[in-house]
Amino acid sequence: MEHFDTIVVGAGVAGLTAARLLTRHGRRVLVLEARDRVGGRVVTDRRYGLATDMGASWIHGITDSPVAAAAEAFGMRMVEYTVGGYQPDSRPIAYYGPDGARLSDAEAEQFAEDIRTLDATLVGVIAASGPDASYRDVAEEALAAQAWGAERAQRVREYLEHRSEEQYGAWIEDLAAHGLDDDSIDGDEVVFPDGYDVLPRRLAEGLDVRLTHVVERVRWTGDGVEVTSDYGTVTADTAIVTVPVGVLQSPEFVIEPSLPEPVAGALRRLKMNAFEKVFLRFRTKFWDDGVYAIRQQGPEARWWHSWYDLTALHGIPTLLTFAAGPAAVETRDWSEEQIAESILVQLRRLYGDRVERPTHVHVTDWQDDPHSFGSYAYMTVGSTTDDHDALATPIGGVLHLAGEATWTDDPATVPAAMLSGHRAAQHVLGHDVAIDGIWTAPA
Q1: From CA 286, how far away is CA 355, in angstroms rounded?
Q2: Is 135 domain-assigned?
Q3: pLDDT tens string 14-38
Protein backbone atom coordinates (compact mmCIF):
# COMPACT_ATOMS: atom_id res chain seq x y z
CA MET A 1 0.00 0.00 0.00
CA GLU A 2 1.43 3.38 -1.03
CA HIS A 3 2.06 5.89 1.75
CA PHE A 4 2.42 9.66 1.38
CA ASP A 5 3.03 12.60 3.63
CA THR A 6 -0.26 14.18 2.49
CA ILE A 7 -3.13 13.08 0.26
CA VAL A 8 -5.16 15.87 -1.34
CA VAL A 9 -8.66 14.92 -2.47
CA GLY A 10 -9.72 17.10 -5.38
CA ALA A 11 -7.66 18.82 -8.07
CA GLY A 12 -9.52 22.10 -8.10
CA VAL A 13 -7.76 25.36 -7.30
CA ALA A 14 -7.89 24.73 -3.53
CA GLY A 15 -6.38 21.26 -3.78
CA LEU A 16 -3.75 22.22 -6.33
CA THR A 17 -2.74 25.25 -4.26
CA ALA A 18 -2.27 23.13 -1.13
CA ALA A 19 -0.43 20.39 -3.01
CA ARG A 20 1.88 22.86 -4.75
CA LEU A 21 2.87 24.57 -1.51
CA LEU A 22 3.39 21.30 0.37
CA THR A 23 5.47 19.86 -2.46
CA ARG A 24 7.60 22.97 -2.50
CA HIS A 25 8.29 22.43 1.20
CA GLY A 26 9.54 18.91 0.69
CA ARG A 27 6.39 16.91 1.34
CA ARG A 28 5.47 13.85 -0.73
CA VAL A 29 1.96 14.66 -1.92
CA LEU A 30 -0.62 12.70 -3.91
CA VAL A 31 -3.63 14.41 -5.49
CA LEU A 32 -6.66 12.25 -6.27
CA GLU A 33 -9.20 13.70 -8.71
CA ALA A 34 -12.51 12.13 -9.73
CA ARG A 35 -12.75 13.95 -13.05
CA ASP A 36 -10.68 13.28 -16.15
CA ARG A 37 -9.17 16.78 -15.89
CA VAL A 38 -7.89 19.20 -13.28
CA GLY A 39 -9.72 22.39 -12.35
CA GLY A 40 -12.90 21.22 -10.65
CA ARG A 41 -15.45 23.97 -11.16
CA VAL A 42 -12.96 25.93 -13.26
CA VAL A 43 -13.61 24.47 -16.72
CA THR A 44 -13.41 25.96 -20.21
CA ASP A 45 -15.39 24.78 -23.24
CA ARG A 46 -13.43 25.31 -26.45
CA ARG A 47 -16.03 24.23 -28.96
CA TYR A 48 -16.38 26.43 -32.04
CA GLY A 49 -12.85 27.75 -31.58
CA LEU A 50 -13.74 30.00 -28.63
CA ALA A 51 -12.96 29.75 -24.91
CA THR A 52 -16.19 29.72 -22.91
CA ASP A 53 -15.82 29.45 -19.14
CA MET A 54 -18.64 27.19 -17.96
CA GLY A 55 -17.74 27.44 -14.29
CA ALA A 56 -15.76 30.26 -12.72
CA SER A 57 -15.41 33.21 -15.12
CA TRP A 58 -14.34 36.32 -13.26
CA ILE A 59 -11.80 37.49 -10.78
CA HIS A 60 -14.21 39.60 -8.74
CA GLY A 61 -11.82 42.38 -7.79
CA ILE A 62 -8.14 42.16 -8.67
CA THR A 63 -6.94 44.41 -5.83
CA ASP A 64 -4.62 42.32 -3.62
CA SER A 65 -5.97 39.14 -5.25
CA PRO A 66 -3.58 36.16 -5.22
CA VAL A 67 -5.45 34.74 -8.23
CA ALA A 68 -4.78 37.91 -10.21
CA ALA A 69 -1.10 37.70 -9.21
CA ALA A 70 -0.93 34.05 -10.26
CA ALA A 71 -2.71 34.76 -13.56
CA GLU A 72 -0.27 37.54 -14.34
CA ALA A 73 2.70 35.34 -13.46
CA PHE A 74 1.34 32.58 -15.72
CA GLY A 75 0.90 35.02 -18.61
CA MET A 76 -2.88 34.72 -18.74
CA ARG A 77 -4.54 37.41 -20.86
CA MET A 78 -7.12 39.39 -18.89
CA VAL A 79 -9.91 41.69 -20.09
CA GLU A 80 -11.53 44.15 -17.70
CA TYR A 81 -15.22 43.39 -17.24
CA THR A 82 -16.53 44.73 -13.96
CA VAL A 83 -19.93 43.41 -12.93
CA GLY A 84 -19.91 44.26 -9.22
CA GLY A 85 -22.35 42.74 -6.76
CA TYR A 86 -25.45 42.84 -8.97
CA GLN A 87 -25.25 46.62 -8.82
CA PRO A 88 -28.19 48.82 -9.92
CA ASP A 89 -26.00 51.28 -11.83
CA SER A 90 -22.35 52.41 -12.11
CA ARG A 91 -22.15 50.65 -15.47
CA PRO A 92 -24.43 51.35 -18.46
CA ILE A 93 -27.52 49.26 -17.77
CA ALA A 94 -30.58 49.29 -20.02
CA TYR A 95 -33.66 48.86 -17.80
CA TYR A 96 -36.97 47.77 -19.28
CA GLY A 97 -40.20 48.17 -17.34
CA PRO A 98 -42.95 45.58 -16.86
CA ASP A 99 -44.54 46.70 -20.13
CA GLY A 100 -41.37 45.96 -22.09
CA ALA A 101 -40.55 49.63 -22.75
CA ARG A 102 -37.13 50.98 -21.85
CA LEU A 103 -37.03 53.23 -18.81
CA SER A 104 -35.91 56.81 -19.35
CA ASP A 105 -32.61 57.89 -17.84
CA ALA A 106 -34.51 59.68 -15.07
CA GLU A 107 -36.63 56.62 -14.30
CA ALA A 108 -33.56 54.37 -14.21
CA GLU A 109 -31.74 56.80 -11.93
CA GLN A 110 -34.73 56.91 -9.56
CA PHE A 111 -34.87 53.11 -9.46
CA ALA A 112 -31.15 52.90 -8.68
CA GLU A 113 -31.59 55.48 -5.92
CA ASP A 114 -34.40 53.36 -4.46
CA ILE A 115 -32.06 50.37 -4.36
CA ARG A 116 -29.37 52.40 -2.58
CA THR A 117 -31.93 53.67 -0.07
CA LEU A 118 -33.17 50.18 0.64
CA ASP A 119 -29.62 48.81 0.95
CA ALA A 120 -28.77 51.50 3.51
CA THR A 121 -31.79 50.44 5.57
CA LEU A 122 -30.89 46.77 5.18
CA VAL A 123 -27.53 47.25 6.92
CA GLY A 124 -29.21 47.94 10.26
CA VAL A 125 -32.03 45.45 9.75
CA ILE A 126 -29.63 42.61 8.98
CA ALA A 127 -27.38 43.50 11.92
CA ALA A 128 -30.38 43.27 14.26
CA SER A 129 -31.83 40.12 12.70
CA GLY A 130 -32.12 36.82 14.55
CA PRO A 131 -30.27 33.64 13.53
CA ASP A 132 -33.36 32.19 11.85
CA ALA A 133 -34.11 35.21 9.69
CA SER A 134 -34.08 34.79 5.91
CA TYR A 135 -33.06 37.39 3.39
CA ARG A 136 -36.77 37.68 2.55
CA ASP A 137 -37.52 38.55 6.19
CA VAL A 138 -34.99 41.36 6.36
CA ALA A 139 -35.90 42.60 2.87
CA GLU A 140 -39.57 42.92 3.80
CA GLU A 141 -38.74 44.70 7.05
CA ALA A 142 -36.54 47.16 5.19
CA LEU A 143 -39.23 47.72 2.54
CA ALA A 144 -41.86 48.35 5.20
CA ALA A 145 -39.71 51.19 6.55
CA GLN A 146 -39.96 53.08 3.24
CA ALA A 147 -42.85 55.41 2.40
CA TRP A 148 -43.37 53.88 -1.03
CA GLY A 149 -46.46 52.85 -2.90
CA ALA A 150 -47.12 49.20 -3.78
CA GLU A 151 -45.81 49.39 -7.35
CA ARG A 152 -42.57 51.13 -6.39
CA ALA A 153 -41.94 48.70 -3.54
CA GLN A 154 -42.62 45.73 -5.81
CA ARG A 155 -39.96 46.78 -8.31
CA VAL A 156 -37.38 46.93 -5.49
CA ARG A 157 -38.64 43.64 -4.03
CA GLU A 158 -38.08 41.96 -7.41
CA TYR A 159 -34.59 43.38 -7.54
CA LEU A 160 -33.73 41.85 -4.16
CA GLU A 161 -35.15 38.50 -5.29
CA HIS A 162 -33.05 38.61 -8.45
CA ARG A 163 -29.96 39.62 -6.49
CA SER A 164 -30.35 36.61 -4.17
CA GLU A 165 -30.69 34.31 -7.14
CA GLU A 166 -27.93 35.76 -9.29
CA GLN A 167 -25.41 36.11 -6.47
CA TYR A 168 -26.05 32.76 -4.78
CA GLY A 169 -28.45 30.77 -6.93
CA ALA A 170 -30.89 30.63 -4.03
CA TRP A 171 -34.50 31.69 -3.61
CA ILE A 172 -34.75 34.64 -1.25
CA GLU A 173 -36.64 32.65 1.42
CA ASP A 174 -33.89 30.03 1.56
CA LEU A 175 -30.92 32.41 1.86
CA ALA A 176 -29.82 33.44 5.35
CA ALA A 177 -30.22 37.09 6.28
CA HIS A 178 -26.43 37.41 6.34
CA GLY A 179 -26.06 35.44 3.10
CA LEU A 180 -24.99 38.48 1.09
CA ASP A 181 -22.69 40.03 3.69
CA ASP A 182 -19.71 39.43 1.40
CA ASP A 183 -21.42 41.15 -1.53
CA SER A 184 -18.69 43.72 -2.22
CA ILE A 185 -15.97 44.08 -4.82
CA ASP A 186 -12.51 45.65 -4.43
CA GLY A 187 -10.96 46.85 -7.68
CA ASP A 188 -11.66 46.03 -11.29
CA GLU A 189 -12.95 42.64 -12.33
CA VAL A 190 -11.45 40.68 -15.19
CA VAL A 191 -12.30 37.74 -17.45
CA PHE A 192 -10.06 35.47 -19.49
CA PRO A 193 -10.43 35.39 -23.29
CA ASP A 194 -8.18 32.31 -23.47
CA GLY A 195 -10.00 30.48 -20.68
CA TYR A 196 -9.77 30.40 -16.89
CA ASP A 197 -8.68 26.75 -16.95
CA VAL A 198 -5.15 27.84 -17.80
CA LEU A 199 -4.79 28.59 -14.08
CA PRO A 200 -5.39 25.07 -12.69
CA ARG A 201 -3.46 23.49 -15.53
CA ARG A 202 -0.43 25.59 -14.62
CA LEU A 203 -0.91 24.92 -10.91
CA ALA A 204 -0.93 21.17 -11.60
CA GLU A 205 2.43 21.16 -13.39
CA GLY A 206 4.93 18.87 -11.65
CA LEU A 207 2.42 17.43 -9.19
CA ASP A 208 1.44 13.77 -8.77
CA VAL A 209 -2.18 14.10 -9.88
CA ARG A 210 -4.14 10.92 -10.58
CA LEU A 211 -7.28 11.55 -12.60
CA THR A 212 -10.51 9.50 -12.70
CA HIS A 213 -9.88 8.36 -9.11
CA VAL A 214 -13.29 8.64 -7.46
CA VAL A 215 -12.72 8.77 -3.71
CA GLU A 216 -15.37 6.89 -1.76
CA ARG A 217 -14.06 6.93 1.80
CA VAL A 218 -11.66 8.91 3.98
CA ARG A 219 -10.88 7.21 7.27
CA TRP A 220 -8.96 9.17 9.87
CA THR A 221 -7.41 8.38 13.24
CA GLY A 222 -4.91 10.19 15.40
CA ASP A 223 -2.16 8.32 13.54
CA GLY A 224 -3.09 9.27 9.98
CA VAL A 225 -5.57 8.69 7.17
CA GLU A 226 -6.67 6.03 4.72
CA VAL A 227 -8.21 7.17 1.45
CA THR A 228 -10.13 4.66 -0.62
CA SER A 229 -11.04 5.21 -4.27
CA ASP A 230 -12.22 2.94 -7.03
CA TYR A 231 -8.50 2.18 -7.59
CA GLY A 232 -7.84 0.98 -4.04
CA THR A 233 -6.57 2.41 -0.77
CA VAL A 234 -3.61 4.68 -0.07
CA THR A 235 -2.45 6.07 3.26
CA ALA A 236 -0.86 9.28 4.50
CA ASP A 237 0.08 11.15 7.63
CA THR A 238 -2.45 13.88 6.76
CA ALA A 239 -5.20 14.58 4.23
CA ILE A 240 -6.72 17.72 2.76
CA VAL A 241 -10.23 17.21 1.39
CA THR A 242 -11.28 19.91 -1.09
CA VAL A 243 -14.44 18.45 -2.61
CA PRO A 244 -17.53 20.73 -2.84
CA VAL A 245 -20.15 20.87 -0.10
CA GLY A 246 -22.48 18.82 -2.28
CA VAL A 247 -20.03 15.93 -2.30
CA LEU A 248 -19.30 16.23 1.42
CA GLN A 249 -23.04 15.86 2.01
CA SER A 250 -23.43 12.93 -0.40
CA PRO A 251 -23.86 9.40 0.96
CA GLU A 252 -21.43 8.30 -1.75
CA PHE A 253 -18.58 10.14 0.01
CA VAL A 254 -17.93 8.81 3.53
CA ILE A 255 -15.70 10.38 6.16
CA GLU A 256 -15.10 7.97 9.03
CA PRO A 257 -15.44 8.68 11.92
CA SER A 258 -18.09 11.28 11.14
CA LEU A 259 -17.11 14.91 11.15
CA PRO A 260 -17.08 16.40 14.67
CA GLU A 261 -18.42 19.78 15.75
CA PRO A 262 -18.14 22.57 14.80
CA VAL A 263 -17.43 21.17 11.33
CA ALA A 264 -20.53 18.98 11.14
CA GLY A 265 -22.91 21.76 12.16
CA ALA A 266 -21.41 24.20 9.69
CA LEU A 267 -21.75 21.64 6.91
CA ARG A 268 -25.43 21.03 7.75
CA ARG A 269 -26.20 24.74 7.43
CA LEU A 270 -24.62 25.15 4.00
CA LYS A 271 -26.16 23.95 0.76
CA MET A 272 -25.19 23.72 -2.89
CA ASN A 273 -27.15 26.06 -5.12
CA ALA A 274 -29.06 25.80 -8.38
CA PHE A 275 -27.25 28.12 -10.75
CA GLU A 276 -26.61 27.60 -14.46
CA LYS A 277 -25.05 29.81 -17.11
CA VAL A 278 -26.61 30.30 -20.54
CA PHE A 279 -24.43 31.74 -23.32
CA LEU A 280 -26.14 32.90 -26.52
CA ARG A 281 -24.04 33.84 -29.57
CA PHE A 282 -25.58 35.70 -32.51
CA ARG A 283 -24.59 36.69 -36.04
CA THR A 284 -25.48 40.34 -35.43
CA LYS A 285 -25.90 42.53 -32.38
CA PHE A 286 -29.55 43.56 -32.00
CA TRP A 287 -29.23 45.25 -28.61
CA ASP A 288 -28.00 48.80 -28.00
CA ASP A 289 -24.33 49.75 -28.21
CA GLY A 290 -22.65 51.00 -25.08
CA VAL A 291 -24.82 48.84 -22.83
CA TYR A 292 -23.10 46.55 -20.38
CA ALA A 293 -26.26 44.83 -19.13
CA ILE A 294 -29.94 44.54 -20.01
CA ARG A 295 -32.46 44.16 -17.20
CA GLN A 296 -36.17 43.46 -17.37
CA GLN A 297 -38.63 44.32 -14.60
CA GLY A 298 -42.04 42.91 -13.75
CA PRO A 299 -43.66 39.46 -13.66
CA GLU A 300 -42.24 38.50 -17.07
CA ALA A 301 -38.79 38.72 -15.47
CA ARG A 302 -39.47 35.93 -13.00
CA TRP A 303 -36.89 33.73 -14.71
CA TRP A 304 -35.01 35.76 -17.31
CA HIS A 305 -34.29 39.23 -16.03
CA SER A 306 -30.63 40.08 -16.76
CA TRP A 307 -28.42 39.70 -19.80
CA TYR A 308 -24.72 40.67 -19.96
CA ASP A 309 -23.02 41.75 -23.16
CA LEU A 310 -19.82 39.69 -23.58
CA THR A 311 -19.19 40.78 -27.16
CA ALA A 312 -15.90 42.45 -26.24
CA LEU A 313 -14.42 39.15 -25.07
CA HIS A 314 -14.06 37.62 -28.53
CA GLY A 315 -15.57 40.19 -30.89
CA ILE A 316 -18.66 38.00 -31.46
CA PRO A 317 -22.13 39.24 -30.38
CA THR A 318 -22.73 37.30 -27.15
CA LEU A 319 -25.20 37.55 -24.29
CA LEU A 320 -24.84 35.74 -20.99
CA THR A 321 -27.79 35.12 -18.71
CA PHE A 322 -28.38 32.85 -15.75
CA ALA A 323 -30.92 30.22 -14.81
CA ALA A 324 -30.75 30.79 -11.08
CA GLY A 325 -32.70 29.45 -8.14
CA PRO A 326 -36.26 28.52 -9.20
CA ALA A 327 -35.47 28.99 -12.89
CA ALA A 328 -32.58 26.53 -12.67
CA VAL A 329 -34.73 23.97 -10.88
CA GLU A 330 -37.66 24.29 -13.29
CA THR A 331 -35.52 24.09 -16.43
CA ARG A 332 -33.26 21.34 -15.11
CA ASP A 333 -34.51 18.75 -17.60
CA TRP A 334 -35.01 21.13 -20.52
CA SER A 335 -32.97 20.89 -23.69
CA GLU A 336 -30.69 23.75 -24.71
CA GLU A 337 -33.18 24.54 -27.49
CA GLN A 338 -36.07 24.83 -25.02
CA ILE A 339 -34.08 27.08 -22.71
CA ALA A 340 -32.94 29.28 -25.59
CA GLU A 341 -36.49 29.66 -26.91
CA SER A 342 -37.79 30.63 -23.46
CA ILE A 343 -35.12 33.33 -23.25
CA LEU A 344 -35.80 34.57 -26.79
CA VAL A 345 -39.48 35.10 -25.93
CA GLN A 346 -38.39 37.64 -23.32
CA LEU A 347 -35.82 39.31 -25.54
CA ARG A 348 -38.49 39.73 -28.24
CA ARG A 349 -40.62 41.62 -25.70
CA LEU A 350 -37.82 44.16 -25.52
CA TYR A 351 -36.39 44.17 -29.06
CA GLY A 352 -39.14 42.80 -31.29
CA ASP A 353 -38.27 41.31 -34.67
CA ARG A 354 -34.64 42.38 -34.39
CA VAL A 355 -34.04 39.31 -32.22
CA GLU A 356 -32.60 36.49 -34.30
CA ARG A 357 -31.98 32.89 -33.40
CA PRO A 358 -28.57 32.29 -31.80
CA THR A 359 -25.87 30.54 -33.78
CA HIS A 360 -24.56 28.77 -30.68
CA VAL A 361 -25.99 28.04 -27.23
CA HIS A 362 -24.05 26.81 -24.20
CA VAL A 363 -25.94 25.78 -21.05
CA THR A 364 -24.20 24.45 -17.96
CA ASP A 365 -25.47 21.50 -15.93
CA TRP A 366 -23.86 21.81 -12.50
CA GLN A 367 -26.91 20.57 -10.59
CA ASP A 368 -26.50 17.12 -12.12
CA ASP A 369 -22.71 17.01 -11.93
CA PRO A 370 -21.89 14.03 -9.66
CA HIS A 371 -18.66 15.69 -8.57
CA SER A 372 -20.26 18.90 -7.31
CA PHE A 373 -24.11 18.69 -7.22
CA GLY A 374 -24.33 22.43 -7.82
CA SER A 375 -22.26 25.47 -8.67
CA TYR A 376 -21.26 26.67 -5.19
CA ALA A 377 -22.51 26.76 -1.61
CA TYR A 378 -24.77 29.27 0.10
CA MET A 379 -25.81 29.97 3.68
CA THR A 380 -29.23 28.52 4.52
CA VAL A 381 -31.52 30.03 7.14
CA GLY A 382 -29.91 29.47 10.54
CA SER A 383 -26.38 29.76 9.20
CA THR A 384 -23.90 32.46 10.16
CA THR A 385 -20.90 33.80 8.30
CA ASP A 386 -18.67 31.98 10.80
CA ASP A 387 -19.84 28.66 9.36
CA HIS A 388 -17.48 29.05 6.41
CA ASP A 389 -14.36 29.18 8.57
CA ALA A 390 -15.79 26.62 11.02
CA LEU A 391 -15.93 24.14 8.14
CA ALA A 392 -12.13 24.38 7.92
CA THR A 393 -11.47 23.55 11.58
CA PRO A 394 -8.62 20.98 11.68
CA ILE A 395 -9.84 17.50 12.64
CA GLY A 396 -7.78 15.23 14.87
CA GLY A 397 -4.57 16.92 13.77
CA VAL A 398 -4.66 14.90 10.53
CA LEU A 399 -7.67 15.94 8.45
CA HIS A 400 -8.36 19.34 6.90
CA LEU A 401 -11.18 20.64 4.70
CA ALA A 402 -10.60 23.36 2.11
CA GLY A 403 -12.43 24.90 -0.84
CA GLU A 404 -14.49 27.97 -1.65
CA ALA A 405 -17.13 27.16 0.99
CA THR A 406 -14.52 27.17 3.79
CA TRP A 407 -13.45 30.80 3.39
CA THR A 408 -15.54 33.48 5.12
CA ASP A 409 -14.42 36.74 3.54
CA ASP A 410 -15.27 35.94 -0.09
CA PRO A 411 -16.83 32.48 -0.43
CA ALA A 412 -17.98 31.05 -3.76
CA THR A 413 -14.93 32.43 -5.59
CA VAL A 414 -11.62 31.17 -6.95
CA PRO A 415 -9.66 33.47 -4.58
CA ALA A 416 -11.53 31.84 -1.68
CA ALA A 417 -10.51 28.42 -2.97
CA MET A 418 -6.88 29.46 -3.38
CA LEU A 419 -6.69 31.13 0.03
CA SER A 420 -8.30 28.12 1.70
CA GLY A 421 -5.76 25.80 0.09
CA HIS A 422 -2.98 28.05 1.33
CA ARG A 423 -4.42 27.94 4.86
CA ALA A 424 -4.74 24.15 4.78
CA ALA A 425 -1.11 23.79 3.66
CA GLN A 426 -0.01 25.98 6.57
CA HIS A 427 -2.02 23.86 9.00
CA VAL A 428 -0.31 20.72 7.72
CA LEU A 429 3.16 22.29 7.82
CA GLY A 430 2.60 23.88 11.22
CA HIS A 431 3.99 27.24 10.17
CA ASP A 432 3.30 30.16 7.84
CA VAL A 433 4.35 30.01 4.20
CA ALA A 434 4.20 32.72 1.56
CA ILE A 435 1.29 32.33 -0.82
CA ASP A 436 3.37 33.54 -3.74
CA GLY A 437 5.14 30.19 -3.59
CA ILE A 438 2.22 29.01 -5.72
CA TRP A 439 3.41 30.93 -8.77
CA THR A 440 7.05 31.91 -8.18
CA ALA A 441 9.99 29.72 -9.14
CA PRO A 442 11.74 27.87 -6.29
CA ALA A 443 14.69 29.73 -4.79
Answers
A1: 6
A2: no
A3: 999 999 999 999 999 999 999 999 9
